[in-house]
Amino acid sequence: RNWPLTNTGEVRRLLAEYGLKPRKSLGQNFLVAAGVLDKILEAAEVEKDEVVIEIGPGVGALTRRLAEKGARVAAVEIDGRLIPLLKEVLGDLGDRVRLINADALKVDYGALLAEMGAGSFKVVANLPYYITSPFVAGFLEAGYRFERMVLMVQKEVADRMTAANGTESYGALSVLVAYHTEADVVWRVSRHCFYPPPAVDSAVVRLMRRPAPAVTVLQPELFFRIVRASFGRRRKMLPNALAGAVPGLDRETWVQIIESAGIDPRVRGETLTPDQFGLIADACVRLGY
Ligand code: SAM
Questions:
Q1: Residues enclosing ligand 1, CB less than 6 A?
Q2: What is the pTM assigned to this prediction?
Q3: Staple 29 to which of 16, 77, 194, 206, CB 3.0 to 4.6 Å?
């Protein structure tokens, strides 16, 4: 059997054969545009025998293409109803595809990668929208040594991931992504490329992991705590936003720390570059707080 899997009729028929309907609560919007799959594969630059982690294989369209390129794919799908269908669609690919019926937010990727003997690996996925931020943030914070991630995400999230300081989309996620990776938007994708179409447009982002973090700081944990607090109350001037972020440090102390970092304490956090957040975090340590 031939598996184009890239038009609505085909995907709908296949799901019907298994008595299934797409579940909105699981973000089941299946990609039905061959051209977009091509773009994802182009951005992924998969090499033969390389390990690729795919989150949410759905009906297996992207999974098939990755495996056909020679990748060894570990596909993590939460919806057990799709597993028999995926086994049929991917059956001829043998051990190039490993199906894991689990919640992608709970998988121990370290153990999985060790089992697969992965040196370098990539993450390629059309992510269910409701897990995008926790998945990406969790994966980055865990320090997995991926080479790149190529992800279909909601357009607004793509903007947040790639935003520069001073823009409306700039936030804690932008700083986290910039700290670990060099990120860019590869392709904007209309909602009509999916079955069923979601309520928003999407974009494919590429996150290339940096060999070392973009900002060298004395205490990364403190750096991220400052970043999160700054954006938690983003309309406030920085010392007000930071008051209480570190136990015992009041507004006046933050004014002193920010000034000693060479930054005007009247600014808002959303205007600061990751480097400037780094200067503040290090000033905090140097002043003995
Ligand atoms: N890869 C397919 C495609 O491109 O057409 C499907 C993508 S669809 C946007 C998201 C997929 O992620 C669905 O198959 C859904 O069941 C699955 N999913 C949702 N939540 C998940 C989770 N927490 N862990 C793993 N998979 C999940």
A1: 26-31, 55-58, 61-62, 76-79, 103-105, 126, 128, 131
A2: 0.96
A3: 194
Average pLDDT, the chain: 96
Angle at 28 between CA 26 and CA 34, to 5 degrees: 155
Q: Which of 3, 25, 77 to mutate to test the pocket of ligand 1 (most atoms within 8 A of CB)?
A: 77
For ligand 1, the distance from its centroid to the CA atom of residue 168, given in whole angstroms, is: 29
- The token pair at 109 is 């990727």
Identify the residue whose C-alpha is closest to ligand 1 atom 23. 103
- Nearest one of 117, 31, 106, 139 to 72, comparing CA atoms: 117
How many whole angstroms from 11 Cα to the centroid of ligand 1? Answer: 15
Q: Give dist(CA 124, CA 134) in Å, integer.
A: 16
Helix ranges restricted to H, the chain: 8-17, 34-44, 61-68, 83-90, 109-115, 132-142, 155-162, 172-180, 220-232, 238-242, 251-260, 274-286
pLDDT at 227: 97
Helix 61-68 × helix 34-44 angle, to 10°: 50
Residue with tokens 């929208």: 129
The ipTM, to two decimals, is 0.99
Place of tokens 């780094």: 278
Q: Annotation-wise, does 54 bind a ligand?
A: no
